[in-house]
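Narrative summary of target 7.
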Amino acid sequence: MSEFNNVTIVREANVYFDGAVTSRKVVFADGSYKTLGIMMPGDYEFGTEAAEIMEMMAGEVEVLLPGETEWKAIPAGESFEVPANSKFGIKVKTIADYCCTYITE
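Modeled conformation, tokenized:
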């Protein structure tokens, strides 16, 4: 999906790691939401309460998912899932554009 229709966008940005990672929340009519963001090159660790699907729109990243010991390259156009109440590592090699879907059941 290249665009979202009939949504509300929260104006205030989510800013992490001194501005190296930013995103905006997009809320759908049914109350579900996603974030659209940019990550600058660097190594980061994120924690999540809800399960997530991270879709990489552009850029080069590697992720270390919970329970894994090997970093995995995620090319643009692919995604990865993160379970609820967990942490994951991400190495951003080039500026990365992402869309994160939150799974709230």
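The chain has a mean pLDDT of 94.
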